[in-house]
């Protein structure tokens, strides 16, 4: 029996939700729709989907608040859809942990393509673990521990609760500790397709990661900035 991908669409505009639903069901997705945050959380808690498509402009509870509640329960990927197109709005979306960001009006076909791409990337990190990569790897004399199979990063024994995208970016750095990654390389690594826009959007992800892994995010020791180049890991891999 083939597994059916599931998606939760959260949008208070029924017309938009139904159009997205129709396209995704035709593509084989199992679709749930919620028109407000309370219904969305109830449906999400009952059956955690593989993907969430979330309108940032909801009613009483904003999409931003809802995304934070979702992130408190799971690190599944989600796509934000919004009428806000300013760069700072996109940056804010990525800081909230969004894996992709689509501006209204949009093509349902493009949204479907992006949904499939985000889903494939999430599967890649679950199913395509390097068989030679140990399950648990430590860095900095045990200060940092990564479970590559469960996709969990620990600092001093505490789960950092990285989102799906944050984990992908951070794990890229840990797999090549001496390499300096450009912003474009990290975006390509996370997005899986050529990103059209400002590569500095990666800075929003880095800021979010540092809030979770660094003792002092303003003076990072783990995720370092290489001025004029990009980012690198500040710890060496321990000999296991």
UniProtKB/TrEMBL annotation:
DNA-binding region of this protein: 134-235
Q: Which CDD domains match?
A: REC_OmpR, trans_reg_C
Which ranges carry the OmpR/PhoB-type domain? 134-235
- The residues forming a coiled coil are none
Domain Response regulatory span(s) in chain numbering: 6-119
Which positions carry 4-aspartylphosphate? Answer: 55
Question: Does the record's keyword annotation contain Transcription?
Answer: yes
Looking at the record's lineage, which domain of life comes first?
Bacteria
Keyword terms = DNA-binding, Phosphoprotein, Transcription, Transcription regulation, Two-component regulatory system
Against PANTHER family, the record matches this protein to: REGULATOR OF RPOS (PTHR48111), TWO-COMPONENT RESPONSE REGULATOR ORR33 (PTHR48111:SF1)
Q: What is this protein called?
A: Response regulator transcription factor
Organism name: Paenibacillus spongiae
């Amino acid at each position: 029996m083939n597994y059916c991908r599931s998606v939760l669409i959260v949008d208070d505009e029924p017309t938009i939700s139904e159009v997205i639903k129709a396209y995704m069901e035709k593509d084989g997705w199992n679709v749930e729709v919620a028109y407000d945050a309370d219904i969305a959380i109830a449906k999400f808690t009952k059956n955690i989907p593989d993907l969430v498509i979330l309108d940032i402009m909801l009613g009483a509870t904003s999409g931003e608040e809802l995304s934070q509640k979702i992130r408190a329960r799971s690190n599944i990927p989600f796509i934000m859809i919004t009428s806000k197109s300013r760069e700072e709005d996109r940056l804010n979306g990525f800081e909230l942990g969004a894996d992709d960001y689509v501006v209204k009006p949009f093509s349902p076909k493009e949204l479907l393509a992006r949904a499939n791409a985000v889903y494939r990337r999430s599967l890649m990190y679950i199913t395509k673990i390097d068989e030679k990569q140990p399950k648990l790897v430590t860095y900095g004399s045990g200060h940092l521990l990564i479970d590559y199979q469960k996709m969990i990063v620990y600092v001093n024994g505490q789960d950092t609760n990285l989102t799906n995208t944050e984990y992908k970016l951070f794990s890229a750095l840990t797999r090549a500790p001496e390499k300096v990654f450009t912003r474009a390389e990290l975006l390509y690594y996370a997005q899986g397709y050529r990103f059209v826009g400002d590569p500095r959007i990666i800075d929003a992800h880095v800021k979010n990661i540092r809030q979770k892994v660094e003792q002092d995010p303003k003076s990072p020791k783990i995720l370092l900035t290489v001025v004029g180049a990009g980012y690198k890991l500040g710890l060496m891999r321990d000999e296991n």
